[in-house]
Design a protein that fits this description.
The chain is α+β, with helices and mostly antiparallel strands and 623 residues long. Helix content is 48%, strand content 16%. Strand 10 and strand 11 form a beta hairpin. Helix 5 runs antiparallel to helix 10 and helix 19 runs parallel beside helix 21.
Length: 623
């Protein structure tokens, strides 16, 4: 993809397209834009059998002086799209074929745009289900495009329908393969995201929801679990607290902020905007400071209060203060989750950075809805727990333990700052030592040696207190063992600063040179200093003996994308421009002659999938 060099101009231009043009229609005559495109829809033949392909042909006439964009996100600001609403008759919604688009330089975007004018024909290729009954089928759809002249564009959603007849009979082999009736020789292969989009709106939403639930299994989510539980434990102690309202507001706040902030940053700062913000040292210092501030509140040294000037905006001061606090936690959750952008979100943000609006919004909303849903229950449960009778003593102990965990989480973000700014202070052993001490302090607290302001005297040691005391002491000793060259569990290691790996090159040009000399393919690891999922793959997959053995056949190149040096910006642009994603981690295998042999999008806990990717790419190189 081409990266837009003036993203702020692009954002405001898109704002003009979507809002200004419509809101001020009294001042600007948009009736011509509304009627500048006319089209007719037809099918490629009259008789179909189950399992055959169907080509839906759009004969489009565009008035003089007007144009619509190309169908490809990589060749358009906001791609033209054909959405099949009644998609249950088809096994595959295929792709859209178009004639070679025109190209011109758009000064508003400071880049080339690809478009169509006059009369064109678009072809949507579909595959019928194998079990369709003999009948006549009426299908509805929407033709989505921007109608543009030299000064402005407006979005259009034109409904259409078509009828096709299915007869009994064996499918004909000449109609089984989806045809490509186009002379477009400059075709760009469809990305995984485009393939999902072409399956239709409902299918795309289900896919995005599934990606959101899968993202919950990644390590970058875990730090927000104790934070959520501890914050809403205190929230539940407030008078007139409504647990369902608070939990709902928190979850919806995550959905809204995750979507709007992610897309706004993509529009203004580019596809990696969200990742850049999450990796920003000042943001990480802010999050670490916030966690420490919340921790000492849980210890009982002070109460968190919303400033009085904010509370005065509402008669119900506590209610307004609570709402702002919850939304602030939603923002913190979003910033934390952006530290590792999964493949699906990375592709959405890359597409949004090129001007596409509809599909990135739908994708981000669906993804974040699934992503936030478990945290609704994590916010709900501790609030009801706080309201249980006689919960004071043991609940205070729970809050103190949560406070210790928040301090431990804070040092994860402090180590992020160290990595980006290259302090060399909070390395793996220092952070590990701090974590070990924190868990030992938790044991001493449960033993009664360390006391907090609101603790009640320990009259007897319950079974649960002793059990957790032993557990925390064991974890502290186990973490301490990592200081003596003992490899800890991969999940724990993924939160620690990465060790230096001498076998990896951090310069792609040097990788090309070595690959040509040794006649080996290049394995590129697009990674980040602050990326927890990247660490997980490096510890749990890369260190497996069979993977290390295969790695011997590759030149290993590690490209960091979230640092502040010029080389990091170059790496980031390479990933977005060439591979259409800002996801971390992201793996690519190239030949010494720069041919793409394979890509692997992100974290995968199945080692065999990664090994198959390596072997297939190696086979492609040998062939």
């Amino acid at each position: 993809m081409k990266i837009m060099k003036n993203n702020l101009d692009k954002f405001f231009y898109l704002f003009n397209i979507l809002f200004f043009s419509i809101s001020f229609s009294n001042d600007i005559d948009i009736s011509k834009l509304e009627n500048c495109v006319n089209f007719k829809v037809k099918t490629d033949r009259n008789i179909y059998f189950s399992g055959e392909s169907l080509s839906l042909i759009f004969d489009i006439n565009i008035d003089d002086g007007f144009h619509i964009y190309s169908v490809h996100p990589e060749k358009s600001l906001s791609p033209t799209y054909i959405d099949i609403i009644d998609s249950t008759f088809f096994s595959d919604l295929g792709i859209i074929n178009e004639p070679i688009p025109l190209k011109k330089f758009d000064k508003n975007f400071n880049q080339d745009i690809f478009y169509h004018e006059d009369s064109i024909q678009l072809v949507k290729n579909l595959n019928l289900l194998d079990n369709l009954k003999s009948d006549s089928y009426n299908v509805n759809g929407v033709f989505e495009y921007y109608a543009c002249d030299e000064s402005m564009c407006i979005p259009r959603w034109d409904d259409f329908n078509f009828i096709f007849k299915v007869f009994e009979g064996e499918k004909r082999q000449e109609f089984v393969i989806v045809p490509f009736p186009t002379d477009y020789n400059d075709e760009i292969p469809l990305s995984d995201l485009e393939n999902e989009i072409n399956k239709g709106l409902f299918s795309f939403i289900l896919f995005a929801l599934g990606m959101g639930f899968l993202a919950l299994l990644t390590p970058c989510v875990f730090p927000m679990i104790p934070i959520t539980v501890s914050y809403f434990t205190k929230e539940g102690e407030k008078e007139n607290n409504n647990p369902i309202f608070s939990a709902t507001l928190y979850a919806l706040g995550i959905v809204f902020i995750f979507t709007t902030l992610g897309l706004l940053l993509s529009f203004t700062l580019g596809a990696s905007g969200a990742g850049d913000i999450a990796a920003n040292p000042w943001i990480n210092i802010f999050i670490a400071s916030l966690f420490i501030y919340l921790a000492f509140s849980l210890f009982g040294y002070y109460e968190i209060q919303t400033p009085a000037f904010i509370r005065q905006f509402s008669i119900n001061q506590e209610g307004r203060g609570g709402i702002l606090g919850i939304l602030f936690m939603s923002l913190t959750f979003t910033l934390t989750s952006f530290t590792c952008t999964v493949a699906f979100v990375g592709a959405l943000l890359a597409t949004a950075s090129q001007g596409a609006v509809f599909w990135p919004i739908i994708g981000m909303l669906s993804f974040s809805l699934a992503f936030a849903s478990p945290f609704f229950f994590l916010a709900l449960f501790p609030q009801y727990l706080s309201k249980l009778p006689k919960s004071g003593g043991w609940l205070n102990s729970v809050k103190v333990i949560m406070g210790f965990l928040e301090i431990a989480a804070a040092f994860k973000f402090i180590s992020n700052v160290d990595l980006v700014w290259n302090w060399g202070i909070f390395d793996r052993n220092v952070v590990l030592l701090i974590w070990a001490l924190i868990f030992i302090l938790m044991s001493l607290y449960l033993l009664g040696i360390i006391k907090m302001p609101f603790d009640t005297p320990i009259k007897k040691f319950s079974f649960s207190r002793i059990s957790f005391l032993v557990l925390f002491l064991f974890i502290g000793v186990y973490l301490s063992s990592g200081l003596f060259n003992n490899k800890l569990h991969g999940l724990i290691e993924s939160y620690l600063p990465p060790p230096k790996q001498d076998s990896w090159i951090e310069n792609l040009d040097e990788g090309y040179s070595i690959a040509k000399k040794m006649n080996k393919p290049i394995f590129i690891d697009f990674t980040g200093y602050t990326c927890t999922n990247c660490r997980w793959m490096e510890i749990n997959i890369f260190e497996e003996n069979d993977v290390k053995k295969i790695f011997e056949d590759f030149v290993l190149v590690k490209l960091y994308t979230d640092g502040k040096e010029e080389v990091h910006k170059k790496n980031r642009l390479l990933e977005i421009e060439r591979f259409g994603t800002a996801a971390l981690p992201y793996y690519v295998i190239l030949s010494p002659d720069d041919e793409v042999l394979g890509t692997f999008p992100g974290m995968d806990t199945n080692k065999d999938n990664f090994i198959n990717f390596l072997n297939n790419s190696r086979s492609n190189f040998e062939d």
